[in-house]
C-alpha cells in the first residue's frame, strides 16, 4: 500500500495517472453497484424467502398395483430448523451455523414427504432460534410479504410462508411454538395448519420449546393442505360425515378492529347452506378459561389487575412464554451463554431472558398447561370447532422502532396464539380476503387429536367461505346492533330459538322481521319456510323457498323444503324435480335420496 502511495505522489503531476485512478475507482463502484443490484434482483425473484436452494428428489414410485404417491408433482420448502443430510441446520442464525456440523440424516417429516412423491427445493429464512412472531432476521434479511411488502411477513416461519404466498412452491414446512405457522399464514393471506402437539414427528427438527412446538405446514390450496396432513399424520382417506358445532369466541373478536361482517358473518353465512352444521353457539373464552383453569389464578393476580377476559388471556400467554424460556434454556443453555452476543438485538434479549429464568414455579406452569387441554376438550367435546381471529392487528411495518406499540401488538397476538399452544389442540388459519390493503383471517380450533376432523371441515367449508368473503368485500359497512350482530341477524336468531322451542308462529314472526330488515338473505326465507311447513302452510312455504332460490340458486335446503311442500300439496312430479336438483348440488344428501326414491314409487 505504501509503495502505491509513493508511486502516486511521484507521478502526481502526470494527468494519465489520475485518469487511471479515476477509471479504477469507477470500476470498483460499478462492480459494487452491479453486485448490489444482482443481489436485489435475486432477492426480488424469490421474495427473499430462501436461504439455500437445492433439490431433494422424491423417492421412486411403488410398482403397480400400489396407489399413486399422494404428493406426486408437488414442490415444497422447509424452514432452517429441519435437518437435511450433508447440510448444516442453521436455526436462523449464522453463529449457530458456524458452531455446528452438517446433519447426518434428513428429518423424518421431510423424508415422509419425499416418500409421498413431493420434491424439496430449498431451505427458507426463519426468526433466529425459533423465537418471535414478527419474521424479521437482521442477518439474512426479512422475507418480503407478497401482500404487504412494507410490512413484516410474520414469524417464526417467515420464509416458508412467503415461499407459498409468492407461489414459489406448492406447500412448505415450518415450526409453530407460539404462533410460528399460524401468524405468518394470517399476514401472508394463506392457509396454515398447526397439528395437535406431538402428532407429527419432530425427529431431525431443532427444538425451541418441545412441549409447545409442533411441525406445521402452509398451502394456498385447501386440497394440498389436506394431502400434506394426510401424509404427515398418516390419516385414512375416508371422510366420515359428522355433525359440526361452530362456537364463536365473542370476546376475542372484540380484540380485532376488522368489521364483523367480514369475519364472523362470513363464517356464519358460509355454513348456513351446508348440511351437517348445527346452529352456531357463542362463548366468552376468557371467562371460560378463568372458570376452568384454577391454576391460572396465581398468574392473573401477579398482573395486579382485576380478572377479566383480557387479563386472563394475557396471563395464559405469560405462562406460555415462561414455559418457552424454561425449555429453551434446558435445551441450549451452554451454547447460548457462549454465543448470545452474536445474535440480533431482539433475539439476544429473548435468549438472555431465557437464561435468567428460574425454575421455582415450573410445576405450576405445566399444571396450567394440563388444565388448559382438559378445558378446551370440555368446551369442544367431539364435534365442536372454536372460531377465533388468528391475529388482532395488521402486520407491523418493517423495522418498527416504537417498543410500546410493538409490545401491545405482541400482547394481543400471544393472547390469541396461546390457546392452541397451551392446550396442544390443532388450529388452522383461513384467509378471508382483505380489508383495505390488510389480509383478513380467522382460525378454526378443535380438540386435541381432532386433526382429521379439522382437515375434513376445511375441505367442506373453504369454497363457501371464499364466496362469502367476496360478497362481504363488496358490501357497504353495516353498524352492529346488540353487540355482535346486525339487527336482521338478531331477529333470525330469535326465530331460530322459537323454532327450536316448537313455537312455530313466533318463529314466523321473527323471520318476517328479519326479512323486512334484509330482504336479500336467502336463509331468512328458507327458515321461515321451515316454520310454515310445521304449521301446515305449504303454499307459503313453497313461495318462501322459491324466493330463497332467486337469491341463492345453490341453496340446498330451499330445494328440499320446496320439495316437501309440493309433495304435501300432492304435486309429486314438481317435488321430485326439486329433490333431484338438491342431489345435483349435494350428491350425498340422504334426505333428498330417500324422498326422490319415495316419490318415484308413488308416481309409478
UniProtKB/TrEMBL annotation:
PANTHER family: AMIDASE 1 (PTHR46310), OUTER ENVELOPE PROTEIN 64, MITOCHONDRIAL (PTHR46310:SF4). TPR repeats lie at residues 488-521, 556-589. InterPro entries: Amidase_dom, TPR_rpt. Residues 68-455 form the Amidase domain. Pfam families: Amidase. This is Amidase signature (AS) superfamily. Keywords: Membrane, TPR repeat, Transmembrane, Transmembrane helix. It comes from Arabidopsis thaliana x Arabidopsis arenosa. It comes from the Eukaryota. The chain crosses the membrane at residues 17-34.
